[in-house]
Amino acid sequence: MNNKTIKIVSRSSCLAQIQARLVANKIKHAYPDISLELNTIKSTGDIDKNIDISSGETPGLFTNNISNSIKKGENDIAIHSWKDVPLEPTKETEIYGTIERGDIRDLLFIKNKSLKNLNKKELSIFTSSPRRKYNSNEVFPKLLPFKNFVVKAKAIRGNIETRLRKYNESNIDGIIIAKTAFDRIINSNLKSDKIIADKIKNYISDSKWMILPLSIFPTAPGQGAIGIEANKNNNFIKEIIKTINKKEVFNAVGKEKNILFKYGGGCHQKIGVSVWRKNDFEFEALRGITTEGKDLLSFKIANKLLNNNFVNIPKSKAFPSAASKSKVFIREQIDQLSLIKKIRSSVIYLSRKNVVSNNPKIHRSNIIWTSGIKCWEYAAKKGYWINGSSESLGENESMRIDSFINQNFKYYKLTHDQSKSSNMEIIPVYRLLPKNFKKHIKDKTHFFWMSSLIFEEAIKSSPEIIDAYHSSGLGQTYEFLNKKIKDKNKIQGYLSYDDWKKNIS
């Protein structure tokens, strides 16, 4: 291996230098004998604070100076927040790799004093992103506990520390930032970074935080990912990058950028697109509006193979053909109000919307997480501040909230008396009393199960249906079906009941 020192360059911000060190550590681990030199350059966007970063007229605003240093041979490897990089940095350079991706999602902070008036007609939010501006007005009325309001976006510039300082010192209600930027600074072990992290924690100490759900609030292509750039003619460096490249992340970002490119590309677009994987599923979320005024809204399993066993299902053979017919249990409330009221500094997981139907008092020190978006919307209408959601992908879907909690936090799940959990303490807030529904499933061949308990009750009364075709959402029920049904061709996962119902003819 060549003995020369490899020069790695990034922007001079705290976040950029953290990302450069992350890549440098990967290279050092793969090539321990290589010498590395870390350099910084101020980008055009860092130097000129008067440029309108939302206009789209200056592509590469935060990357061009750095890319040019690779083009000229002044540095060997450039490290970028990939979302800032144009599809082709320069004619002579290219992004050849990446490493593990951070949390893709956006992060919203709202000041506690703003939450004292839930009847606010206007909510002011710091963001210069056209995507965030547009989608905030589309999504926030359903996710926030305010009664009836519009979002007014206010432009802001600067690195994460600067933006959060400006937010803290202003009368603006909230701010949206990339969660991975926040996480990487807060969790850095470097002493100089910890000083900045402490400042950031102070700036948001009197705010509520919310992790915005990807399924309805997709982000900028490449958000959370690090782009590793090299000169097209430098085969030595390209080979090093290839060695550390995380192919799954690289491919996902490529798909995101190609999707946006179909609509014109660029950070000036009011479009969010995110691609990510969980187990064997690849998800794709798209939301926004094109320059021609076309609304974009989709959330799908991008890699789902067509299984002909689950296509054109006759309505007479499907259960349930309507969501109301799936209600095979009577739900009887269990009074746990006094217990819930005592809980402090914990994560409280809402398994479905009826667990807050009797308005339990949840202390402000707790984090509230929902199983899905409908549960979130219901709870928000009742005045609860929701911190995030599993988005109907299962309770084992990682919350990734280490930046906000300590090891002493406990996890509680508000659910029914027969529920189980591998990582949460159950608080049964209702009991399930089964109804006889044998007549409803007679002669059915295709089933969508809302829970494993409904499946088990059905098998008790009609054991022959084990050989039918079974579907569910992608959480615990789907995992349960895979354990119970041997023929995997008779199982299909869907995003929701409505997603499955599209196949009923």
Please write out the topology.
Layout: E1 6-10, H1 14-30, E2 36-40, H2 44-47, H3 64-71, E3 77-81, E4 93-97, E5 106-111, E6 122-126, H4 130-143, E7 150-154, H5 160-169, E8 174-178, H6 179-186, H7 191-203, E9 207-211, E10 226-231, H8 235-244, H9 247-262, E11 270-278, E12 281-289, E13 295-301, E14 318-319, E15 329-333, H10 337-342, E16 346-350, E17 367-370, H11 373-381, E18 388-389, E19 410-416, E20 425-434, H12 438-441, E21 446-449, H13 452-461, E22 469-472, H14 476-484, E23 491-493, H15 497-501
Helix pairs in contact: 1-8, 5-7
What features would you describe in this structure?
With 505 residues, this protein is α/β, with parallel strands linked by helices. The chain folds into 4 domains: 6-102 and 223-264, Periplasmic binding protein-like II (D-Maltodextrin-Binding Protein, domain 2, 3-Layer(aba) Sandwich), CATH 3.40.190.10; 106-211, 3-Layer(aba) Sandwich (D-Maltodextrin-Binding Protein, domain 2), CATH 3.40.190; 308-325 and 436-501, no CATH class; 329-434, Rossmann fold (3-Layer(aba) Sandwich), CATH 3.40.50.10090. The protein contains 15 helices and 23 strands. It has helices spanning 14-30, 44-47, 64-71, 130-143, 160-169, 179-186, 191-203, 235-244, 247-262, 337-342, 373-381, 438-441, 452-461, 476-484, 497-501; strands spanning 6-10, 36-40, 77-81, 93-97, 106-111, 122-126, 150-154, 174-178, 207-211, 226-231, 270-278, 281-289, 295-301, 318-319, 329-333, 346-350, 367-370, 388-389, 410-416, 425-434, 446-449, 469-472, 491-493. The protein has a 6-stranded mixed β-sheet. Strand 11 and strand 12 (281-289) form a beta hairpin. The relative contact order is 0.10. Residues 55-59 have low confidence and may be disordered.
